[in-house]
Amino acid sequence: MKNPLLVLVLFLISGCSNMSVEQYRDSTPQLVLEDYFLGETKAWGIFQNRSGAIERQFTVDILGKMVDGNLVLEEDFIYADGTLDRRVWTINKIDDQHYEGRASDVIGHATGHVSGNALNWSYTLDLPYKNGTIEVQFDDWMFLQPDGVLLNKAKMTKFGFYLGEVTLVFQRK
Fold it and tell me: Chain centroid to CA 69: how far?
């Protein structure tokens, strides 16, 4: 191979998604975050590394409430190894299609775009790693199903390199 750097760049570009949330504008049921997550929700999830091996399994109990016009999600994680974690999101609805979210471990803020039954979140998360933390980017997609189940798939990257994927299934209580 004459130019391995060119091959690497082409590989990285080909891995980029052309998916747009707008392509789901006619898909139903319509996802409205503040309606779906108000009250109690349960989620089940896994983290798969870049090879596809499952490294973590977990459940999440979520309590959603409106506070000063914002959706606040209190997420309590229970991992299969007994580890507990908590994340509290404050989500502000910018307009009918755009949201902004904040949490203590989110660097800056998350931006969300919803259309039809789909939501795409983009954010950087400061994740615990070994004896410190590591900043990873999330490309997070949610799809509301007709029976009220919400499917979630999030790709994790660092410096553009794929690290793994989180898959979640949400069900309102």
Answer: 22
Q: Is residue 126 predicted with pLDDT exceeding 70?
A: yes
16 domain-assigned? no
- Check residue 18 and give its pLDDT: 73
Domain residues for 109? Answer: 23-172
Percent of the chain beyond pLDDT 70? 90
Cis peptide before 128 (omega within 30 of 0): no
Give the chain's length.
173
Dihedral of the alpha carbons of 74, 80, 82, 86, in degrees to the nearest 10: -20
Q: Nearest 5 degrees, angle CA 62-CA 72-CA 21? A: 85
Residue 145 lies in a domain: yes
Which pTM does this prediction carry? 0.87
